[in-house]
Amino acid sequence: MKFARALTPARAVPEQVLRIQIGDEAEDISIPPDGKTLAACLEQENTVSCADLTTFKSMHTVETQGKNPEHCIFSPDGKKTLCS
Questions:
Q1: Which end of the chain is more exposed for a tag (fewer CB within 10 A), N or C?
Q2: Dihedral of the CA atoms 30, 5, 54, 61 (nearest 10)?
């Protein structure tokens, strides 16, 4: 339980360390095995946004073909993202 060890005894929830502005109300996020990128499904905007986790800046946003993307996952090699 790595998560449980990261919490201090006086706090019931972890504190926010930083915020990356990538859109409104992300439904789901995914991080590839190398940990360098974050993909977020933005359901209301029908887009998927990516952020660089080494610089903590937004990289790009792509419109989805379907409506209301709610889930995303990177391929094992981290080169592709599947959104549904």
A1: N
A2: 20
